[in-house]
Amino acid sequence: MSIYQRIQDLAKQKKLTVRDIERALNYANGSLRKWKDNANSQKLVEVANYLGVSTDYLLGRDASPSKGKDKGANVVD
User: Fold this and answer.
1) What pLDDT sits at residue 41?
2) 13 domain residue, yes or no
3) Could you report the per-residue pLDDT of 24-73, keeping only the tens digit for each?
4) Is the pLDDT of residue 18 over 90?
5) Which segments of 14-72 does DSSP mark as H helices, in order?
6) Cβ(5)–Cβ(49) under 8 Å?
């Protein structure tokens, strides 16, 4: 499943359209559709945060959409 397909599925689950996500994040109309071929890493992080999932899920590296602490991530206070 592509990044764009995962975004579409998550949008449906949250009763949103892809355009709703683009508007909320101030992206140009159709910009997420371009992710079928290539994704901007900063925007990928923004979309994952907006949808409440991990970037690994959007990239297909994790089967679970739940957002957990990244493996190996250190939090510095």
Assistant:
1) 80
2) yes
3) 999 999 999 887 767 778 888 999 999 999 999 888 888 888 776 554 44
4) yes
5) 18-24, 41-51, 55-59
6) no
Question: Is 19 exposed, middle or buried (CB count within 10 Å of its CB: 0-12, 13-18, 19+)?
Answer: middle
The CB density around residue 22, as the number of other CB atoms within 10 Å, is 17
pLDDT of residue 69: 52
C-alpha to C-alpha distances, 25 to 22, 39, 46, 57, 69, nearest whole angstrom? 5, 15, 8, 19, 23
CATH number of the domain encompassing residue 19: 1.10.260
Res 74: pLDDT: 38
Torsion of the alpha carbons at 23, 6, 14 and 49, rounded to the nearest 10? -60
Structure tokens at 7: 């975004």
User: Can you give the residue range of the structural domain that contains 11?
Assistant: 3-59
Structure tokens at 60: 């297909």
